[in-house]
């Protein structure tokens, strides 16, 4: 199990290309940041017809990853109960590679070391179906601070989509995510989160449109699903 800690910053869906380019240019020049290219991510989210996973504050995702010079890859991810405050998201996460476009729930259940979450997936897994997807291009940078704290910076631009009666309903998705990858001494003093906040302030100076966002991509999908299906 991993504990995911990331600071999420949202941008307007109609962000002009010039403003996005300004952010990319700033990150390309940011001291300590190393550009890691871009990749195309398609994420299909699953739940039961009565949304048992959402009620339990869990998210089940199958992700397709495509990037130049690398084999295409499928990943399945289970995220469990967490909290979001001032854009900082902290939650449990289990992620496993799968060989093709299909969930391997038995492997996820075996990997999940939270009994209540494993039991939820064991009891409800055979009933899950695709509910919505996110489809976006992600640009990545790895930032290393002077003390060795490491942060992945992701700029995502694409859409959330729900299919209903043959019609694809979408809304734009434009976000920056700052994910804490590593911090010295298990981050007992909270230095990692302070560095996330300092990076956010640096980006805000370039793009004041950025704002802390407590809504995850999964929550955006469920919200659009509710708007479309009622």
From TrEMBL:
Entry keywords, A to Z: Hydrolase
Main enzyme class: hydrolase
Domain CYTH span(s) in chain numbering: 2-228
InterPro entries the record matches: CYTH-like_dom_sf, CYTH_domain, YgiF
Gene3D superfamilies: Hypothetical Protein Pfu-838710-001
A Pfam family annotated for this UniProt entry: CYTH
Record lineage: Bacteria, Pseudomonadati, Pseudomonadota, Betaproteobacteria, Burkholderiales
EC number of this enzyme: 3.6.1.25
SUPFAM superfamilies xref list: CYTH-like phosphatases
The keyword Nucleotide-binding belongs to this UniProt entry's keyword annotation: no
Encoding gene (name): ygiF
GO molecular function, one term: metal ion binding
Species this protein is from: Pandoraea captiosa
Keyword Hydrolase: yes
Position of the signal peptide: none
Descriptive protein name: Inorganic triphosphatase
